[in-house]
Design goal:
Helices cover 31% and strands 24% of the residues. It has 521 residues and is of the alpha/beta class.
Amino acid sequence: MPYNPAMKETIAIVDFGSQYSQLIARRVRENRVFSVVCAPDVDLQQLRDLNLAGLIFTGGPASVYEPGSPRCSEAMLELGVPVLGICYGMQISCLLLGAEVNAAPAREYGRVRLDVLDDTDLLGHVSSPASVWMSHGDMVRSLPKEFIPLARTANCPIAAVRHRHKPVFGVQFHPEVTHTACGGQILRNFLYNICGCRGSWEVRNFVTETVEAIRQRVGADERVICGLSGGVDSSVTAALLHEAIGDRLVCIFVDNGVLRKNEVQLVESTFREHFKIDLRVADAAERFLSRLAGVTDPQEKRRRIGHEFIEVFKEEARTIPHARYLAQGTLYPDVIESGQGLAGQAANIKLHHNVGGLPAELGFELIEPLRDLFKDEVRSAGEHLGLPKEIVWRHPFPGPGLAVRIIGEVTAERVKLLQEVDEIVLDEIRAAGWYAKIGQAFAVLLPISAVGVMGDGRSYEGQQVVALRFVETSDFMTADWVHLDYEVLGCISSRIINEVPGVNRVVYDISSKPPSTIEWE
């Protein structure tokens, strides 16, 4: 049940393989203009069917003059809407219109001084010189007379351009990244002054229209099942559906035994008591833990948990009469990275499996009300729907739960120990005012013993090591470790060692992503 972009002015982001494609789409939406990501070979009729206001061509790692490099047709430049090319996107649009592109004599990477030659249109209200972020080894060498240079750098004489007769613009730098201080102004110039956008995209309108669309789709005698995890995505999905169809929604929450402390009670109080949602809790903790007995490989843990989840969910679903639909909290990045929709196979990075990877033989029709939203928009929708802040703004939690934060074998005793540690970590960073500043914070139980002093003697037996992992990130594709106050770290460590029997050492993970991942397993 996606939001219908044909009803709103839309900017299409044509993805030439850029790591910033989703960031560009988010920057557009931050300016209250709806955006979609599409592949260069997208059917042009699909674009015409949108209320298309403009196109943005992204950067990419290839060279436009190399065989096999991603291309779009020149017809894309004739759709009658403005085009902004960024980096590779500028090079390909200029090449299609007669420019020469080849390797630059000097590669530019990082912050570069930009001298503005024409401060109208695209570069309006941009002071010269400006500091912009470059990342390129190729450049537009020469332009046909139909183009006008708008800016230059010391090593790139043609750093921004516009066509004299067509609404085609280009910048060699990246206005979407925060390192380009004037980037927001440039994007606003393009969206509002060049494309003529009104800025009518609002999450609250999305909520209203999506609720009405769900009501139209789900029949009066039909029910919808929602797999509830307690995370923000499934919680907002459930709240949207409940707003639309009331008690015809049934949520299934599976207690797999590797959840956070008191997670079941939080979900029950939020959805059963506050929202009055029909919530079915499947107590399968012992079942999951028995399947994990003796397993140390993280992928095997994930496989067993996923398989058992499907079986438990199927058993619960069979008890719900007139259930025709299954609701999932699929988000727009999932759609893009799975190569679905306008993104095409060019963007097929990985497959996403929601609700534990429920198989097609369940026989339900899918409802995915969030499939056009980014995470920040989902949080806004959750606030609009009245979800508690502790649900809307909670940190991500892995599908396999604490099983992949316990390195080595998962046992009931080790789960209980890590639950106690996890609760102390979250309590202390909330009390110190750090929770909202951190993208993700958690503890990892390591499979080693460390020497400690127990009373008057030294001891190894049963004394375990906990690692703390706190990261800051905007997109979870890259992340850096949080430079937390030493006093806060010291308080967390002291409480863990004093209050959790069996732990005598706490360490802090100061690695970044990449090369590390956020989770340990």
